[in-house]
Design brief:
Helices cover about 40% and strands about 15% of the residues. By secondary structure, it is α/β, with parallel strands linked by helices. A hairpin with a 6-residue loop joins strand 2 and strand 3 (about 200-205). The termini are far apart.
Length: about 425
């Protein structure tokens, strides 16, 4: 029997080496191979498949580093017959099942002699027999369905180890089936390998919403923008802007003026203050109102001030409001993720808009995270210590006589809250944006 089993194992591996696509279709597991050489080769094939690499002699050899196995594989391929692979796949599983039944008989004797309760022995035996029955029939379909269902319910990036953990896969047999199922899903275009890390995938998401541009309302929003920009450009729902400023360059003053001037123009006006508690905010608002001859608190009753209790500021965005975030703190790996954060803010918006303040290092042309923070916003303003404001990106529609990258704004803040500004030619002609 061992000689016939070895012949079946060799024939199946030879067929895979000639036609690697068979690997994704075969239903054998690594443990089904009785010969250690065949087990090692099949395991290496599975690792290459998970890595998204082709199954060939050289790559298998690089993994195994065994010249004798390389020569053995060459011999296998010389006698492999791909057209008969299903027959040998079945035979390998049958011989494996017989071997494992014999092992189960040994376990039964051990359990019976070592005081196990009859009910416990019977239950263990039932479970093992069920596993063997499924494997000799159609276990792969069951595992394929489990993995497929799990993948569809999983959002974003995942690892093969996540699949093992959440499906409760602990045996090498089940893990091999799961890897094979993932390989089939890659072949079908359901998932794709993600990054260069081994066993990392993402779900291919093709959901979309058709853009009905014919019926779209293209009436610009009635909004007052900083530095009178609303006189020169149009603003629409889901519009985002970034105000990047040096420390003490006046970010909060600009945003408070924006909030005050737009009360009543949106269903709600939300001001998210990340660095001011109630007492400091009150002092700041009183100073702002006094500087502009407004009455406190009546002049700002239309503004809802909120203190975040989470660093996930995108979750605080009101979809239909004018949202002002003062300011978005970036630290550590958040710099590389800022474009994703801003994308999530954009996705939260419906008829509303968002203005986001970020810090800028003194002397730098752009704020923290640099170009990564410029990807999603339509408007990117910088406030520089010394009272110079510049437009670094402007993707909205503007009037023909307005040249956003040829001008800059000279401004000053009076009494801690009144903003006075004027337009002048840009001191440096080099611009960072364009339409």
């Amino acid at each position: 029997m061992q000689e016939v089993q070895l012949e079946a194992e060799q024939a199946l591996l030879g067929a895979i080496l000639i036609s690697p696509e068979i690997f994704r279709l075969t239903r054998v597991h690594m443990d089904d191979f009785g010969d250690p050489r065949n087990r090692k080769i099949f395991q290496a094939m599975g690792e290459l498949e998970v890595d998204g690499q082709p199954i060939d002699y050289q790559l298998i050899y690089q993994k195994l580093q065994d010249r004798d196995l390389l020569l053995y594989m060459i011999q296998l391929s010389e006698h492999g017959i791909p057209v008969n692979w299903k027959y040998y796949d079945r035979k390998v599983r049958e011989y494996s099942c017989k071997r494992q039944l014999a092992e189960l008989a040994v376990h039964l004797g051990y359990w019976a002699k070592n005081g196990n309760q009859p009910g416990e022995v019977i239950e263990k035996t039932k479970v093992r027999l069920k596993e063997l029955e499924e494997h000799i029939t159609d276990v792969s379909k069951s595992m394929q369905q489990q993995v497929s269902d799990w993948v569809v319910a999983t959002k974003g990036v995942f690892y093969v180890t996540d699949c093992y953990a959440e499906l409760g896969l602990v045996t090498s047999r089940d893990k091999a089936s799961a890897r094979k199922a993932l390989s089939r899903l890659v072949e079908e275009g359901v998932i794709k390998p993600h990054s260069r890390r081994r066993g990392c995938y993402r779900l291919v998401e093709t959901d979309y919403e058709a853009i009905d541009h014919v019926q779209a309302d293209d009436t610009p929003l009635d909004i007052i923008l900083p530095f009178g920009l609303h006189k020169h450009m149009e603003w629409f729902p889901k519009g985002m802007a970034v105000v990047a400023g040096d420390t003490d360059a006046g970010k909060t003053t600009v945003l408070l003026n924006l909030a005050h001037d737009n009360q009543g123009k949106f269903p709600r006006l939300v001001y998210i203050a990340t660095e001011m508690g109630p007492a400091l905010l009150k002092r700041r608002l009183i100073k702002f109102c006094n500087a502009n001859d407004y009455s406190y608190p009546g002049a700002i009753e239309g503004i809802s001030f909120r203190a975040p209790k989470t660093a996930n500021y995108m979750d605080l965005i009101d979809p239909d409001a004018l949202n002002i975030l003062d300011y978005y703190e970036l630290a550590g790996d958040q710099f590389t993720e800022v474009s994703s954060y801003f994308r999530q803010i954009y996705d939260r918006l419906n008829q509303g808009v968002a203005f986001i303040a970020i810090q800028k290092k003194f002397g730098s042309a752009l704020g923290r995270a640099a170009e990564m923070a410029m990807e999603k916003p339509l408007l990117y303003l910088t406030l520089n210590r010394g009272g110079i404001a510049r437009i670094e990106k402007c993707k909205t529609e503007w009037t023909p006589d307005f040249q956003p990258f040829a001008i800059e704004y000279q401004y000053k803040i009076v009494a801690g809250g009144k903003l006075i500004w004027g337009i002048q030619p840009r001191s440096q002609s080099k611009s960072a944006g364009g339409k």
